[in-house]
């Protein structure tokens, strides 16, 4: 019997994931995300966590930006996401990318490991935003930043969820994502 990955809106069947991944593949052909990733402030030598990486749309460019001395952790709770990232690692020879399968909101990475943690197009699916945002906080170095978009919820709703944790300082907003620093 297949292990259920999440409940309610957090659960995604293999067929739903495959459909989403196909949609992202089409999106990436017509609207490549490289320019977007370049705006995140990723620098050579950094450690970056792509939390909720899905099929790995951002791993190749992020890998290039952190360079040989940097590290990219592509984290997701779906086994097909990890499989897709492993395929990208193989296809592009990405020696600094490590896919990580998580269960719930518990990531096996060490505390304070990342300079940047980003979570895009998935925050709306999180059933317990406080626990989720605390986990991202745990992964982030003191001077690091979290980048998170609202996903398919209003910006106001996402902002309230972030502020309610009382562990994040939201910097001046842009139209694409929130840039947050740990308090």
What would your notes on this structure say?
By secondary structure, the protein is α/β, with parallel strands linked by helices. The chain has a single domain, classed as Rossmann fold, CATH 3.40.50.150. It is built from six helices and seven strands; from the N terminus they run ααβαβαββαβαββ. A seven-stranded mixed β-sheet has the order 3-2-1-4-5-7-6, with helices on both faces. A hairpin with a 7-residue loop joins strand 6 and strand 7 (178-182). The model is unreliable at 1-7 (pLDDT under 50).
Q: What about the largest sheet?
A: 7 strands, mixed
Q: If classified by CATH, what would the architecture be?
A: 3-Layer(aba) Sandwich
The CATH homologous superfamily name equals Vaccinia Virus protein VP39
Number of domains: 1
List keywords for this structure.
183 residues; alpha/beta; Rossmann fold; disordered N terminus
List the helices and strands and how they pair.
Elements: H1 14-30, H2 34-38, E1 47-51, H3 59-66, E2 71-76, H4 79-92, E3 97-101, E4 114-119, H5 129-139, E5 140-148, H6 155-164, E6 168-170, E7 178-182
Parallel strand pairs: 1-2, 1-4, 2-3, 4-5
Antiparallel strand pairs: 5-7, 6-7
């Amino acid at each position: 019997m297949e292990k259920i990955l999440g409940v309610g809106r957090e659960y995604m069947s293999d067929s739903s994931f495959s459909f989403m991944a196909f949609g992202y593949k089409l999106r990436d052909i017509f609207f490549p995300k490289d320019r977007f990733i370049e705006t995140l402030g990723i620098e050579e030598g950094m450690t970056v966590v792509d939390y909720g990486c899905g099929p790995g749309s951002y791993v190749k460019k992020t890998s290039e930006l952190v360079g040989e001395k940097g590290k990219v952790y592509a984290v997701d709770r779906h086994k097909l996401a990890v499989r897709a990232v492993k395929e990208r690692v193989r296809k592009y020879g990405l020696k600094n990318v490590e896919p990580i399968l998580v269960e719930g909101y518990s990531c096996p990475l060490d505390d304070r490991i990342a300079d940047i943690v980003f979570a895009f197009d998935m925050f709306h699916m999180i059933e317990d935003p406080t626990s989720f945002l605390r986990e991202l906080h745990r992964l982030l170095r003191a001077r690091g930043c979290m980048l998170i978009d609202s996903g398919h919820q209003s910006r106001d709703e996402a902002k309230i969820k972030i502020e309610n944790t009382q562990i994040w300082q939201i910097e001046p907003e842009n139209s694409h994502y929130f840039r947050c620093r740990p308090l």
